[in-house]
Design a protein that fits this description.
two-stranded antiparallel sheet; 63% helix; 2 domains; mainly alpha
Length: 240
Amino acid sequence: MPDNLPVKAYEDIDRIPMRENFLSMVKHDPVLQSLAQLVGLMPGGQPIPVLATVVEKIVTTMIHRRERIFFEELKTGRSTLEEGVLQSEDFIHKFLITYREARKSAREEKIRYLARLLKASEQPTLSCSLDEYEELLGILEELSYRELSALAIVDDFYSQHPIKFGDNDKPVNESLGQYLPILHRTLEDKLGIKHQERRDFLIRLSRSQCYEPIEYLAGTSGDGYLTPLYYRLKRFIESV
C-alpha cells in the first residue's frame, strides 16, 4: 500500500469547517473556552505550556496508534489493495472518509473492521457502489463496538438455533422462547448488558437496520432477528 495518499490535503480541507464549528460551539461556554485555550485552539488564547504539551503528546500518540492499526490491517489478510486502485477517484473518496473514521475510533477491533470494509469494497467478487459503501460505512460509524459485538452474539445464537419465518415474514419458532435465556445470559456475561437495560439496548440496535425486534401483540421485548443488511455487511468484513 503506497504511503503517499493525499491525507494531509484532506486534513487541511477538513480542518476549516471543523475549526469554524468548534469556535462557534465554544463562543458562549466558558468551560469549553478554557479547554480551547489550554490546547491553543482559541485565537488570542494563552495556553498553559506544560499542560498543552501533555495534551498534545497524548493526542499525537493516540492518533498514531490508530493510524498504525488501520494501515497494518490494510496490508494483511487474504487480500490486499493493488496500487492501481489509486487511479480511481471513487477509491480515493472511500479511503479518505474511512481513514477519517478510523482516526476517530478508540477500539482496535472497530478500526480493523473499517480497514476490512475498505479492502473488501475493491474485491471483484463483491459488487459495491459508492453509495452503498457510504451506507455500510455509516453503520460502522454509528454503532459502538459493544453494539457490533451484540450483533455478532445474536448471529452466533441464531447459527445454533435457526429462526424460521412464516408467509408474513414473521418468526414462527414456537420453541425459540426456551433458548432466548441463553442469548440473554451471553449478552450479560460478555457485554455487561443487564436484564433491566436489555430491552432498550436491543431496540436501539434497530436504528442500524441490521436488527429487527420481534413485534408481539403486547409490544416487543427487544428480542429480534438479523436482517439481510447485517449479513451483507458481515460478508464484507469477513471476506478479506
